[in-house]
Amino acid sequence: MTDSEVSLLLHCAAWRGLLQAQVQVELSERFNRQTDPAVDRHIEEVWTERVSKEPWLFNGSKFRLHSFCLSSSSVSHEPPARQRMEKSCITHSLHDAAQSSLDRGSRAVNQVESADSVSALSPASSMFSNNADDPEPLLTLRLGLTCYKDYLGTNWSCRVAELRQRGEAKFGDALALLAQPLGVGGVLCTADGQVVLIRRSQKVAEAGGLLDIPGGHPEPKVVCERLGQAVCEEQISVDMMQQRPVVSELFSSVCAEIRDEVNIPLSSLGEPVLMGVALNHTSAGRPSAEFYVGCSLTSDEVRKLYWKGGAEAHESTDIVFLGRTEVLQLDISSPLWAELCPSAKGAVLLYQTVRPDSERGQRQPDAQPIASEKRSR
Fold it and tell me: Which of 72, 155, 233, 364 has CB atoms 3.0–4.6 Å from 284's, for a disulfide?
């Protein structure tokens, strides 16, 4: 299935998704957006104009996804030549993967640090398909920092095609000047097998009126606060954070978004399962980590909680339930497909590919609560 609005950067189908212990991050300023005086002036101009029209907007720090590495330390079933490699690793930048809807014709050349071959990414397909013979996958997400202001002035700018060309010419990377903030989204499945969608308000910045999954962003500020550092958004740097708390925030943030948007208590949510990363080409290939989250409540119970209103109830106007089978059968020919925003399309494609609940079963809520801080969108 091909949809120009979305594609899959990574899926974890061989393992039916990855748990928190199977994911790590590498934090470095090397993974930040490259700076350019002309681009920085453009960002300030866009931000000033936007805030003048929407004075309630505020700039917040976000994580920037630069690349990822999928590796396995288990080589016992490999030939002798492979056994000499204590750890095999395949690395991808988003440079060639994120094909903008404004620049769909550019040539893709994968950047691979491995003898293994990787197929080129095409819209609504996966760049990397995992090897089921590797029993212990480990995903490393390479993260820098960015912010909401930079996102509006780059990925969401009307000049994004020009920014990609400038990045390619100056840095050899079409995404070097783009913010590329990493979002999160959750395919939430109730105890009676219903997947939860919410209809976005017409007042939100993107995809107003379309159906979406609960989602938002992992927050660097939350990580710093958990480490006992009270800092303002503009002062956050990668050296203030540690990799395990960042991974924890990546996984817990999707549950916090579900709580705030659907009004489901954290105690009713199961352990998030990372299905993969989808790219939204309506915003220049912005990446989003998509999770499967089981819920111990029925769809009727979820519906009642939703209409009582959560912390971010203003962001949506309705709740919709789809049966698991219906979600698995959704495609571009389905009437409902046109009602899905790009982030929901990416999550559905990952759910159809990974099928995290087909072998793992419904994950029951953990006894230990997940973080309960309020977060910005």
Answer: 155
Q: Residue 105: its pLDDT value, please?
A: 34
Rounded Cα distance between 250 and 256, Å, is: 10
Q: Which of 185, 190, 184, 125 is CA-nearest to residue 324? A: 190
- Give the Cα separation of 351 and 16 in Å (integer): 9
pLDDT of residue 95: 57
- Strand, coil or helix: 126: strand
First to last CA, the chain: 30
Distance CA 70, CA 263 (A): 34
Report pLDDT digits (tens) over 167-186: 999 999 999 999 999 999 99
Query: What is the secondary structure of 97-113 as a DSSP string?
Result: T---TTSTTS-------
Q: Is 284 left (phi over 0), alpha (psi -120 to 50) or beta?
A: left
Specify the amino acid at residue 270.
Answer: G
- Select, from the ranges 79-88, 225-234, 322-331, the one with the highest average predicted confidence (pLDDT): 322-331
Residue 22, by phi and psi: left (phi above 0), alpha (psi -120 to 50) or beta? alpha
Strands 286-294 and 215-216: unpaired
Rounded Cα distance between 173 and 141, Å, is 18
Separation CA 160–CA 173 (nearest Å): 14
pLDDT, one tens digit per residue, over 260-315 is: 999 999 999 999 999 999 999 999 999 999 999 999 999 999 999 999 987 777 87
CB atoms within 10 A of CB 78: 15
Q: Dihedrals φ, ψ of 99, to 5°?
A: -90, 115
| Sole residue written with tokens 């915003």 | 283
DSSP string, 252-307: HHHHHHHHHHH---GGGBB--EEEEEEEEGGGTSEEEEEEEEEBSS-HHHHHHHHH
- Give the Cα separation of 164 and 169 in Å (integer): 9
